[in-house]
Every structure is written in C-alpha cells, then in structure tokens.
Design goal:
Blueprint (H helix, E strand, L loop, with lengths): L1 H19 L5 E2 L4 E3 L5 E4 L7 E6 L5 E6 L4 E2 L6 E6 L7 E7 L3 E2 L3 E4 L4 H13 L8 H4 L13 E3 L13 E2 L13 E2 H17 L1 H6 L13 H15 L9 E5 L17 E5 L1 H18 L9 H18 L7 H7 L15 H15 L5 H7 L13 H10 L1 H4 L7 H16 L22 H19 L2 H14 L24 H5 L47 H16 L11
Helix pairs in contact: 2-18, 4-6, 4-7, 4-18, 7-8, 7-10, 10-11, 10-12, 12-14, 14-15, 15-16, 15-18, 16-18
Length: 587
C-alpha cells in the first residue's frame, strides 16, 4: 500500500512538472514581439477548446483571451495548425501563452526593441569566426580561444602558378573569417557576405552607427559593423595577385581539418587557381567598400582609394579572362595536391558581371560600365544566393537611383518593378498559410541553407518597402524573422544562444571542439533540408521538418557566413524600421 501511494504521488508530481514545462506544441517567435506589430503563435497539436489565453509571466493573471483559428493542414509536412492571433494586445512586458490541451508556451517579451539582441548577436558571431588572431576573454567570455591559421606562409598551389609567382611560392594571406563549420576562406562566398553586411550599413547607417558588439575595435570611431567587415576586407585584398590583378578563388587546406580547435591545425595552406567569378565578386565588394569608406577617411586614410584601385584592377583582369571557371574536379586531374574543400564553382557568371558593373558604376559614375549592365541585366529578379548575385546589383542601382537616373538607358523604373514584382510574388498568395510566414510557401524554399532563403526573402521584402512604403512588405519580412526565431514546423529558434529552444550541436568545428556545451552564440543554423545530403539520421524527413540538431548534419545544422549576413541585415532593418511596423496589419 505504501508503495502504491508513493507511486501515485510520484505520478502526480511528474504530471504537475510536465504541465509546468513549456510546450513544444506552441510555436512562436521565442524572443517576442514588437509592441504595435502583428503577434501570432501557431498551435501544432489538437486544441479542443478552441481558446487561448495570454498570461502574465507568473501565470497568475489572464490578460487577453482569444479564439484559435480553424485547423489547417500544412502543405509541406503532416503538421496541422491553428493560429492564435493576439496582435490587439500591446502592453510591454513578459508573457506566456496558454492553450488548453496544448499547454504553456515559452515565455516571451513584448517591447519596442525585440530584435536588438538578435541583431547584436548575429553581427558579433563574425568576431568568433576570425582567424589568425586569439579570441580574447574580455570579448568572448567562455568562448575565448587561442588563434589559429596565421596564414603568413601560404603556398601558391600549382593551379595558381604564374611566371612571377611559380608553384610553391610563399605569400602572406592572414585574417578573414572562417567560412562556415570549416576552417577555410573562399572569395566567392565572402562576396555575397560582405555585400550584404555593407548594404545593411548603407541602408540603415543611423541604426548601425549605434550598434556596439564588444569587439576589440569598439569605440575606435568606426561603427562595429564596419570594424568587423574590415577584418575580412583586408584579407580579401591579400588574395589579389599584384602582378596582374587576378584573384585567387580560395585560401584553403588541401582537405578539411579534423574536428579540432584552430590552434591544433598545422596542415599546409594554399591559394588556389584564379577565377573570373572570384575577380568579379572581389571587384564588386571593393567598389562598394570604397564608396562607404569615403566617409571614414580620417580613421582609414587612403583605404577607400586602395579598394577602388583593387576593384578596377580585378575588373581589368576579368575583362581579359572572361570565362575562367572554377572546376575543382578538372583542376585536381591536372595538379597536386588534390583540393577537396568547398568548391564554390559557378558555371554561369552573368550575374557576377552584372553585379560588379553595378557597383563600379555606382562608385565611379563612369559610363564604361553601363554596357555590361545592359548586356547582363537579368530578365527577372531572383532571391540572391552565393551563385546568383544579380539582385545585389539591382539593390545598388535602386539605392542610388536619384544619382543614376541621368543614365536613361539603364531603365531604372523597369529594374525597380522587377524587385517589386518579386516581393509581390512572395506575398501574393499569402505565403505559408499554416504558419503565417512568407517562408515555406514552396517546397523549393527548403534547400541546403533554407534559413538563408528566409532571410534573403526578407531583404527583398524590405527593399520593396523602401521603394514603395507599402507596410504590407515590412510586415511580411517580419513573418520570416518570426520563422527563424521559432514559428516553424520544427519548433526551433534557429539562432544559437537565442530563444528558449535553439541548436546546441551545430556542425561547426569551433563549437564542437571547444569542450563547451553551449555553441558559439549568434550563429544561424542551415535549417530544414529534405535533401539530407549528409546521410545522418533524421527523425523527421518531410520538407519543412527535415532538420536535426546533431553535429553530424552539415546539410541542415551547419552555419555559414553568407547565411548569417542576411540575418544581420533583416534583424537590423526591423529594429531601424520598428515604428514603420506599427499597425502594419491594419493599414
């Protein structure tokens, strides 16, 4: 009898514990909501009562009561959802959502700066990715580490040999960021990353002027977003051959390092084959940097001029070598050692020509670049990615349309309409109705790096807002931030160290090898990817749920600098435009 009573007591205590725990059946932005913006949670388990309650953080007071929407089946998983919309509630504070039969949500905030912490963390993540220097405790806390990959003695790979730099010549190429979960540096992927970060500053300078992230350079008279991009910019400058202007495709080991800390890595490093894509991406970044750094001549004397010279020199090389594509397999058939790290090969570089020409025109005003813009201008706008960068050029032309409108042959109104049409196509069918996000309205959204798709969609929508001032676009961009932060079919907040349920076991050498349970914060995981190319074990395999928080999973749980950059842009833009979000659903 005593044993039965004890068992019953244990069961009652356990049930009480379970009831007190946040439910994984209520998906919402785990950071919270802007005071006067839309506020939506998604319930993914049957809720017979059809009612939800907004509670105080201590669960003692009911502050709002609402009716759940009728259940709706998701198009890209077996999930059925009901929507809890409490947009009408606007009091700042910390709250919990309660749904009978589903349980309690994670606690969340309502405030006017709900994504500022996300903005700072996503930008700060680049400091942790720095190579060739120690990451210090006063800036990194428990994630401090010794430096690695000094890259002061890098070899010219036989594929990159030239008359003045024969194979095995030693050059210096220090600095830069580790590209992803690996320890290499790639010009092509740095291209879109640098552009996105620099564009965030161009579009929202007042916000980023005030965003400090506690890095060694903080307080030196430059915004931290500029300080951070400079660390990679200076590395990129070392990747240009001073003898001809060509740009090496990457700085890399022959093979990936093991899952060890950088200080333990001592394999030979190489710069590998010059490529036209690398030269054009480099030219675009340097041209953009040049015009931004004009504002910081006092702090950085001569650097803007050096960047512009480097951009024009790389452009000249590309004009002389217009079709040098990077084909790693073909290269390895000719040269040793074989290189098996990330290829970033691109067989179609029309978009690189367009982007580089746009940046050079915007910076120099020289009509010589217009011919390439007209020749390579895309027929329609597309969501940008590392191998499709045309939209970056369109954004630039439209940012400077008042200055460039004198070049009527550019037909800037048509380019503007392309961007607006792309944004309109994203919002036109209502997005993913089951989760009320723009992200996930097509199976094609769920690819390798799907979370970057969500953020780059956000940039398109924000650009459409800047062009039209139609608040529906900024409200739509906010839904994709909600998606990243937890309102999705997996229930994860995909940014490490943020929210209540975020990735712990990301595919990231620095986070795996450091012996610290928590991964480096501020990193965006790749996200659902039904391709599952890593062959790891996935409990869920449907398009919008094919994600696993294991370090085995480079196909769904790796991080990359080009995925984090649009997160920096979108979170910063939402903070800068927070008052534009006010009552955007009630326009």
């Amino acid at each position: 009898m005593a044993r039965t009573a004890a068992t019953l007591l244990f069961v009652m205590v356990w049930l009480s514990f379970l009831q007190a725990q946040p439910s994984t059946n209520i998906q919402l932005n785990q950071a919270g909501f802007y005071t006067h913006a839309p506020k939506i949670a998604v319930v993914t388990s049957p809720a017979q009562s059809g009612i939800f309650y907004l509670l105080s953080a201590d669960k003692k007071d009911t502050l709002y009561k609402g009716i759940l929407s009728a259940p709706e089946n998701s198009a890209y998983s077996s999930t059925a959802t009901s929507i809890a919309d409490f947009s009408a509630f606007s009091a700042a504070g910390v709250y919990i959502l309660f749904v009978p039969d589903a349980g309690y949500s994670y606690p969340f905030n309502i405030s006017n700066d709900i994504h500022r912490a996300l903005s700072a963390a996503s930008l700060k993540s680049y400091y942790y990715q720095r190579m060739s220097m120690p990451i210090l405790p006063q800036y990194a806390g428990k994630w401090a580490r010794a430096g690695g990959h000094p890259d002061k003695e890098v070899l010219i790979h036989p594929s990159a040999a030239s008359g003045k730099r024969p194979a095995h010549t030693v050059i210096s190429s220090p600095g830069g960021w580790y590209d992803a979960g690996d320890y290499n540096k790639y010009i092509v992927n740095s291209g879109i990353t640098m552009c996105t970060l620099l564009t965030a500053y161009e579009d929202f300078p007042l916000y980023f002027d005030t965003l400090q992230t506690n890095i060694p350079e903080t307080g030196n008279g430059l915004p931290d977003i500029i300080n951070e991009t400079l660390y990679n910019l200076r590395w990129m400058l070392t990747m240009q051959d001073p003898n001809d202007g060509g740009v090496y495709h990457k700085c890399t080991n022959a093979a990936f390092d093991k899952m060890i800390m950088p200080a333990g890595c001592h394999n030979p490093r190489y710069v590998v084959q010059k490529s036209t894509a690398a030269a054009l991406d480099f030219a675009a970044v340097m041209a953009q940097a040049s015009r931004i750094l004009v504002s910081f001549k006092k702090q950085l004397p001569g650097l803007n001029d050096s960047c512009l010279h480097a951009a024009q020199y790389a452009w000249h090389w590309a004009k002389q070598n217009p079709a040098v594509l990077y084909d790693q397999r073909a290269m390895n058939a000719l040269y040793q050692p074989a290189v098996t790290t990330g290829a970033y090969g691109d067989n179609n570089i029309k978009d690189e020509w367009f982007w580089a020409a746009c940046e050079l025109l915007a910076t120099t005003g020289k009509e010589a670049y217009i011919q390439e813009i007209l020749h390579y201008r895309p027929a329609v706008a597309a969501i940008p990615s590392w191998n499709n960068v045309a939209a970056l050029g369109s954004y630039t032309l439209l940012r400077y349309k008042n200055t460039l409108s004198k070049y009527r042959q550019l037909n800037l109104p048509a380019i503007e309409q392309q961007v607006i049409d792309l944004a309109g196509s994203l919002v036109g069918n209502g997005g993913n109705r089951a989760f009320r996000t723009i992200m996930g309205q097509s199976k094609k959204d769920f690819i390798w790096g799907s979370n970057a798709v969500a953020m780059n969609q956000g940039i398109v929508l924000i650009n459409a807002y800047l062009l039209t001032k139609d608040k529906h676009y900024i409200a739509a961009a906010l839904t994709n931030a909600d998606y990243i932060m937890g309102r999705n079919a997996t229930g994860f907040c995909f940014v490490t160290g943020m929210g209540s349920r975020s990735p712990v076991h990301i595919h990231h050498r620095l986070s795996v090898a450091d012996g610290i349970t928590q991964p480096i914060p501020g990193l965006l995981a790749g996200g659902p990817n039904p391709g599952m190319q890593d062959k790891c074990k996935y409990v869920f395999t449907e398009p919008e749920t094919a994600y696993t928080d294991t370090d085995c999973s480079y196909a769904s749980n790796e991080t990359a600098i080009n995925w984090n950059a649009p997160l920096v842009y979108v979170s910063g833009a939402l903070e800068a435009l927070q008052y534009e979000l006010a009552y955007s659903v009630r326009k």
